[in-house]
Amino acid sequence: MAARTKARKRAVDLLFEAEQRGINARDLLAERLAKPVTEAPLNQYTADLVEGVVAHWTDINELLATYSQGWTVERMPSVDRAILRLGAFEVLYAQDVPEGVAIAEAVELARSLSTDESPKFVNGLLARLAEVKPTLA
């Protein structure tokens, strides 16, 4: 597994855990950086991803709510929300990640972590965000 793929998985894990525990993902990240719970400490890309999602939290949630047809953000499975927030951050804000790569990585995370329907949903929603990105200011 490539380093960035692992970093994305760990970022999704942190985003998911923070939501389940009802704490800010930035606070959980700081806790894990100060006191790692695994042998391998979090790498910088994981930290950058979590920081980026948190920095754009409101905009990302609004865009997910706007473009997810028939689904409120709250109704989505928790793991899908974490994957979509990460994918949306990379699609919309990460300058060094091609949109197609961000979408493919998010779909793969959905395939390995969520329901059978999730990869298609994640792909469609993130592709829509990539499509409307030029119109967002």
Low-confidence stretches: none
Shape: globular
Q: Average pLDDT across residues?
A: 94
What is the N-to-C order of secondary-structure elements (H for helix, E for strand)?
HHHHHHH
| CATH superfamily descriptor | NusB-like
Structural class: mainly alpha
Total E-strand runs: 0
Distance between the termini: 35 Å
User: What Rg is obtained from the alpha carbons, in whole angstroms?
Assistant: 14 Å
CATH architecture: Orthogonal Bundle
Strand content: under 5%
Whole-number total of structural domains: 1
- According to CATH, what is the topology? N-utilizing Substance Protein B Homolog, Chain A
Compute the number of helices. Answer: 7
Helix content: over 70%
Family: Belongs to the NusB family.
Protein name: Transcription antitermination protein NusB
Domain NusB/RsmB/TIM44: 6-130
Organism: Pedococcus cremeus
3D structure, described in words:
- GO terms for molecular function: RNA binding.
- Residues 6-130 form the NusB/RsmB/TIM44 domain.
- Involved in transcription antitermination. Required for transcription of ribosomal RNA (rRNA) genes. Binds specifically to the boxA antiterminator sequence of the ribosomal RNA (rrn) operons.
- The chain has one domain: N-utilizing Substance Protein B Homolog, Chain A, CATH 1.10.940.10.
- The protein has helices at residues 3-21, 25-34, 44-55, 57-67, 78-92, 99-113, 118-132.
- The chain starts with a helix and ends in a 5-residue tail after the last helix.
- Helix 1 (3-21) crosses helix 3 (44-55), helix 1 crosses helix 5 (78-92) and helix 5 (78-92) runs parallel beside helix 7.
- The protein contains 7 helices and no strands.
